[in-house]
Amino acid sequence: MNKKITTMSTLERLRVLHIVPSFGVGGAEQMAGHLMVGLSETHDVSAVGLYPARHSSIERKLMRANIPLWHLGKRPGFDPRLFFSLDRVLKQVRPQVVHTHLSVLRYALPALLRRRVPVVVHTLHNLAEYEADVIGRAVQWFAFRRAVLPVAISQEVAASLKRVYGLECRAMVPNCIPVENYRRNVADGMRWRQKERFPQDAVLFTCVGRLEPQKNPLMMVEAFAKLNDPRAHLVMLGEGGLRDDLVAYIRKHRLDRVHLLGKRSEVRECLAASDVFVLSSNWEGNPLAVMEAMAAGLPVIGTRAGGVPELVESGQHGILVPLGDCLGFASAMRTLLNNPEMRAAMGSAACEHATAAFNVDRMAQGYASLYRNALDTSPLETTTAAAA
Fold this sequence. Notes:
The protein is α/β, with parallel strands linked by helices. The protein has 2 domains: 194 residues, Glycogen Phosphorylase B (Rossmann fold, 3-Layer(aba) Sandwich); 179 residues, Glycogen Phosphorylase B (Rossmann fold). It contains 16 helices and 12 strands. The strands form 2 sheets. A 6-stranded parallel beta sheet has the order 3-2-1-4-5-6, sandwiched between helices. A 6-stranded parallel beta sheet has the order 9-8-7-10-11-12, with helices on both faces. It is elongated, with a radius of gyration of 22 Å. It starts with 14 loop residues before the first strand and ends in a 12-residue tail after the last helix.
């Protein structure tokens, strides 16, 4: 019983626990959900969310995969009850690997250290400067030097780990998606256009993302306004703190072809109805929305934010411009608006690249190998992983 882990040949299925703030619809939560389902065929996966149940599509997907879920019911503000709740979950699950996401380490780290979990990894879902607040960065600075292996999702995120925490990146696993779920269905796209009352010959520039400063949606609207072409429509799916500012700008400039559609569940149908995907972010990690659009066969117009250039080859899969370059963004939109053959060629290349590079199996295999390699070198004994 007191044998150390020396080779993974002795372990058929690992007990892996993922900890997330909630099972919402954000990119990090979506990535964690994709990963858990991908891992569940070969590992005993369970998940805990700090906040109450959301009854979201992610939760339904995890339940269909028979992944046990805990909802700890976090209250607003600092909630010390979570220290004890997480400790109880760790005692019950006895995980060999814990995988944390976003801001959970401030609550999870004490229990992880107390229970001496053999391997803890933390995915950095954004540039390190923006991934956590001051307290969160202090906790992570300590955790990354003691017991937690940080994992970058892109080369730019890996570089930010060095800038913020002074650490070389020892592990990088790019995000991936279930590509087949986003294949373009022409009939679905036509029905969506009809439902939303878009003309079949309209050229739809679509963005799926939060209306927050990170995504810089106002620059996108300003760039679109410069087109002044009745064929073009800008479709924006998402909510956020900048919505009122956008509404005011749209009304002031009478931009009746800008459509703020809010949160929608039919992202796949919207992408199938669209012609170009647009993203004007100031910073990014490795955005799933870009991968989803490419899987749907859309060319991408975007800024060179974070890991976006690692997904999109400018001139091949779309057009990338410098951060904050409104005129360049407008020029790229005009180029693809007026060149349907270029849109089709770039969209086809984007879909081919997504199929080859973004399938969720690659991410699941990458993390599975990371877990196994980390366990092979873990000094902790399996029997102390969840010691009382």
